[in-house]
Specification:
homodimer; mainly alpha; Farnesyl Diphosphate Synthase; two-stranded antiparallel sheet; 72% helix; globular
C-alpha cells in the first residue's frame, strides 16, 4: 500500500533506518538482529499514514514522520513478541524466518524492548511542545493505545479467546485493541500536532476504530486463504483456534460486513473532507483495503468452486 | 533496606498499588497476574531513593514519587522477562513462584509490556514541565538507561558472556547496564526536577554508576551464597555460567573490591554533602550495601571453615 509520493516514501525509509542509532558498545548478536530488522521494514503503511495525517501543519512533517516511525517500531516489537513460541509459535514473518528462530528467543525479546524504548522516546518527544491540554490528550492517547486498554489488552484477549467460542463482540474487542490502536496513533497524533479541531479529532478517532475493524477483516481473510508466500507470514488462526471472523462467517458474509463498516467510514471521510480536502487519503485507505479483501474473497470463491 | 520514614514508605506503597489502574475490560488472566504482582512489591528501594533524591524541591515530591514508582514498574518488568525460560529459566522470585509458572509465558510477557507502558508514561509525564535544556537532558537519560545503552544492553551482555570467559571489564559492563541504569534514573531524574546544579548532577551520575557496581557485588554474592529462602529468588549464575565476580575472585578479594569502590563513592558523597546536607542518605545507602556484603562474606568464610 502506498499513500505517499516516491520522495516521501524514500524519506520514511531513510528515517526508519536512521532513527534507531546502534551504539558502538552493543552486544554483537543483538546488533546483528536489529540490523536485520531495520533492513526489512515491511510496508511502512503506518508511517505513511502518519505523514499524510500531519501534512497540513507548518513544520509538523518532521514530528509526524517521527510519530509514524515510532509506531512502526512499536508494531515491529509487537510482531516479534507475538511470533514467540509462547504466543503464536510462528516461523515466517515479512518473508523471512522469524527472529527467534535465527537469533533465539532471548535476543528477540531484547530486540523488541530496544525498539519499544526508542518508540516511546520518539512519541513522547514528538508531543512535548504541544500546549498543555493537547499534550495531556496526546499522552493519554499514547498510553491507552499501547497498554492494557489497547494493543496489550487486545493481544491478551486474542490469546484467551478460542475461535469456536468467540462471539461477534469478541472479534471487535480484539480488532479494536490489536489493530485499531496503532491506527489511532498514526491518524490522531499528527492531527493533534497540526492543531486539528475537536470535531476533526473526534471524527478521526471514529475513523481509526473503523479502519482497525476493516484491516482485521482483511487480515482474517489473509490468515485463512492467502498462502504464506503471498502473506509473508505463518498462518495461525485455524491451527491455534484464534478468533477469526472467517471461522464463523462465509467469505461473502464477511465481505458484506466489510462493506457495512466501509460505508460508515466513508461517511466520516466525507464529513472530514468538507472541512479540509486533505483528508481524502482516508478514502483511498479504505479503497485499498477493499481491493485486498475482494481479491481474497474471489480466491475463496474460486477455491470453493473447484472443490 | 529502608531509607524513608514510615509515613513516606506507606505513601510509596500506596502509590505502587494505585498508580497502575486496571481497566474494567481487562482480560481476566492478565488482570489476575497484575493484581498478584502489585500485591508483592519487593523492597521498593528504588522508589525510596527517588523520594529522597527529590526531597528538597518545593512540590517536587509527587513527581519524584512518580519517577520512583515508574522505575519500580520497569524493574519488575525486567525481572519477569529475565526469569523466562529463554533467559534465566527461574522458578522463584520475591519468594513466590515466577509469574510464567503461574500464568504462562505469554501472560508474563504481556504483563511486563503493560508495566513498561505505564512506566514510560509516568517518566515522560514527570519531566514534561522542565525547562527545555533540562528536559532534553532528562529525556536522553531515560532513553539511555532503559535501552541498548542501559538495561537492555546490559542484559544482552549478561546472556552473551559466560562466567569462565568473562574478564573484569565484562563484569563492569554488565553491572553498569543492568544495575546502575536504574540507580541513575532514581537518583538523577528527581535531582533534575529539584533544579540541582550541573556539578551536583555530574557527581550524582558518578555516584549512581558506583552504586550499581556495589549493588552488583552484593547480588553476585547473594546468587552464589544466599539460600533461595534468604534471597527469595532462584540462583542462576553457577548453573548458567553467567558473569559472576565470585567465580573469579575469592569472597575476601571481592570484599576488597567493594571497599575500594565504596571509598570512591563516599568521597563523592562528602563533596555533595558540602553543598547540601540532604545528600547524606547516599552514604547510608553504601553503608547498608556494605552490611549485606559483609554478612554474606562472613557466611562464605564460615562455610569454608566448616568444609
Amino acid at each position: 500500500m502506498q499513500f505517499v509520493s516516491e520522495a516521501d516514501y524514500s524519506r520514511i525509509l531513510n528515517a526508519y533506518r536512521a532513527d534507531f542509532p546502534l551504539g558502538a558498545s552493543l552486544e554483537p548478536a543483538l546488533r546483528a538482529c536489529l540490523v536485520d530488522l531495520l533492513g526489512n521494514p515491511g510496508s511502512l503503511v503506518r508511517a505513511q499514514l502518519a505523514l499524510r495525517s500531519g501534512e497540513s501543519g507548518e513544520g509538523i512533517e518532521l514530528r509526524s514522520c517521527s510519530v509514524g516511525i515510532a509506531v512502526e517500531y512499536f508494531h515491529l516489537a509487537s510482531l516479534l513478541l507475538d511470533d514467540l513460541p509462547s504466543m503464536d509459535n510462528a516461523a515466517l514473518r515479512r518473508k523471512m524466518p522469524c527472529v527467534h528462530l535465527t537469533y533465539g528467543e532471548a535476543t528477540a525479546t531484547l530486540a523488541s524492548l530496544a525498539l519499544l524504548n526508542r518508540a516511546y522516546a520518539m512519541l513522547y518527544e514528538a508531543i512535548e511542545d504541544l500546549p498543555g491540554a493537547a499534550r495531556a490528550e496526546a499522552r493519554k492517547l499514547i498510553e491507552e493505545c499501547l497498554g492494557v486498554g489497547g494493543i496489550v489488552g487486545g493481544q491478551a484477549w486474542d490469546l484467551a479467546l478460542t475461535g469456536s467460542g468467540a462471539g461477534p463482540q469478541d472479534y471487535i474487542k480484539v480488532a479494536l485493541g490489536k489493530t485499531a490502536s496503532l491506527f489511532q496513533l498514526v491518524l490522531v497524533l499528527p492531527a493533534l500536532l497540526t492543531g486539528a479541531s475537536r470535531r476533526e479529532l473526534h471524527q478521526l478517532r471514529r475513523f481509526a476504530l473503523l479502519s482497525g475493524l476493516l484491516y482485521q477483516i482483511v487480515d482474517d481473510l489473509k490468515d485463512l486463504y492467502a498462502t504464506p508466500q503471498q502473506s509473508g507470514k505463518t498462518a495461525r488462526d485455524l491451527e491455534l483456534e484464534r478468533p477469526n471472523l472467517l471461522l464463523q462467517l462465509s467469505a461473502t458474509d464477511a465481505m458484506s460486513r466489510f462493506e457495512r463498516f466501509q460505508r460508515i467510514a466513508l461517511k466520516i471521510v466525507a464529513a472530514l473532507e468538507q472541512r479540509n480536502s486533505r483528508w481524502s487519503f482516508l478514502g483511498e485507505l479504505t479503497g485499498e483495503m477493499r481491493r485486498r479483501a475482494a481479491a481474497l474473497v474471489e480466491r475463496v470463491n474460486t477455491l470453493e468452486a473447484a472443490a
